Amino acid sequence: MSAGAVLPSSPDEVVDAVRNAYGTVAKEGADRAYADTVAQAFGYTAEQLQSVPEDSHMGLSCGNPVATASIREGENVIDLGSGGGVDVFLAAAKAGPTGQVVGLDMSPDMIALARRNAAKRNLKPPRVSFVKTLLHERLPINSDSVDCVLSNCVINLLPTEGKANLLKEVYRVLKPGGRVVLDDIIAKKEFTETLRVNLQAYVGCVSGALQLHEYREIMQNAGFQDAVFVDTKGDLNAYTQGDSIGCCAKPEPSTSCSVSSSCQPASCGPSSSCKPTSSGTSTQSTSTIAHQVADVNEWAASYQIYATKQANASASDGDVVSTAVPVLESWKDAYPTPKSSPRQITAQEVAELLKSAPADRRAHDFAVIDVRRDDHAGGHVRGSYQRAAQSFYDDLPEFLEKFKETNKVIFYCGSSSGRGPLCAAWYQDYLNEHGIGSSEALVMAGGAKAWLAAFAGDEALTDQEKA
Ligand SMILES: C[S@@+](CC[C@H](N)C(=O)[O-])C[C@H]1O[C@@H](n2cnc3c(N)ncnc32)[C@H](O)[C@@H]1O
């Protein structure tokens, strides 16, 4: 990104620029020495950093929320703007196997990186999930389901109205008595117009920052009456290297890009560079911007914000009401959207396969996979394998081993409009990724409903046993 690129006027374009910038960081990876310097400047201990996958922290933080969040075994936690997942992994270690920790981020590249990092530690949903979502819109999280909401250097990046909206959503999803620990950048004074419209200063977590009184107001409007703001005195100059400003910061080649030039690559990754076009006119040089923020601490500070959602009047001592509510509204959100669209096969065609193939041949020719979990009433296709859709994605390596030589792997669920096609598509994607042509995923059209309508009374075809 050019140090002089201008902040777009529409909030959607700003969000796009932020997404592109952090997506580039996720794809290109962090400079380890830089990431360690920033992490240490904002309070991460060596022990914490050693306990998480290396790529999960990339020098994008401005605090260490888990250190003060007092997360306990079994708690549900969400991390707003989870990046590579550093705080999710630290929180998951505290919440243990009975807790649920969900990282939310809009960047598909960050989500993919965080999921790879989780796989390195064998951490799976529901214990650890990463979900792609826009934080300034409705969160895909159940109401009253979360004990603790974390965020680290993210809220300043949201459009102004989105910040207020997010905090209202945070209040909605917290359990009564639940708490927030938000690390964020807060402006110490009004930014100059030049700094305010500088895209790099915005993406770098500086010029989107609210002033303290503005932040207090949106916390209060969201329902948090007791918010406490603590200046952590973190040194924001830790980010400053070369021409960079703020937390999406890597030293970049010096350029003569200007505020009014047409040079506006929307990235701030390690190797991003800016090549101004000949039409660019240099009205505001990089050095001018860099000069203005020579001391970032003069303009902004890192804060940690604590607040709680009022406990229910019925909760005797103000403790969090303990309920086993799933955090995610939809378990599917924790997994990638598949690319494949598997072919359909009718219930009648599946019945023909069953009738024509002796049991010992079936394993090679075809297999039927029932991905329902608690809705088996009425029976299922005789000889079908039972695999719950909710854990299917995580079991793909083992599933592939078992079925990679099976020509047709036929999936179904209740009506084959949701879980069946989803699992089939994940399997087909997995086959494609591994270049395996000996097996194909199919979907039984109409699912169990169509099957039972035609064959419920046929004992040779329908197994009445509840799986
Ligand atoms: C400065 S990074 C911080 C990452 C992480 N919290 C850490 O400390 O390493 C900001 C993150 O917030 C995400 N983000 C920014 N604006 C967002 C929005 N409107 N919706 C969802 N995610 C957003 C970015 O994609 C990026 O991963």
Automatic annotation (TrEMBL):
Catalysis performed (reactions): arsenic triglutathione + 2 [thioredoxin]-dithiol + 2 S-adenosyl-L-methionine + H2O = dimethylarsinous acid + 2 [thioredoxin]-disulfide + 3 glutathione + 2 S-adenosyl-L-homocysteine + 2 H(+); arsenic triglutathione + [thioredoxin]-dithiol + S-adenosyl-L-methionine + 2 H2O = methylarsonous acid + [thioredoxin]-disulfide + 3 glutathione + S-adenosyl-L-homocysteine + H(+); arsenic triglutathione + 3 [thioredoxin]-dithiol + 3 S-adenosyl-L-methionine = trimethylarsine + 3 [thioredoxin]-disulfide + 3 glutathione + 3 S-adenosyl-L-homocysteine + 3 H(+)
Gene Ontology molecular function: arsenite methyltransferase activity
Signal peptide: none
Gene3D superfamilies in UniProt: Rhodanese-like domain, Vaccinia Virus protein VP39
PROSITE patterns xrefs: RHODANESE_3
Highest taxon, organism lineage: Eukaryota
Segments forming domain Rhodanese: 362-460
Family to which the UniProt record says this protein belongs: Belongs to the methyltransferase superfamily. Arsenite methyltransferase family.
Identification of the protein by name: Arsenite methyltransferase
Organism: Coniophora puteana (strain RWD-64-598)
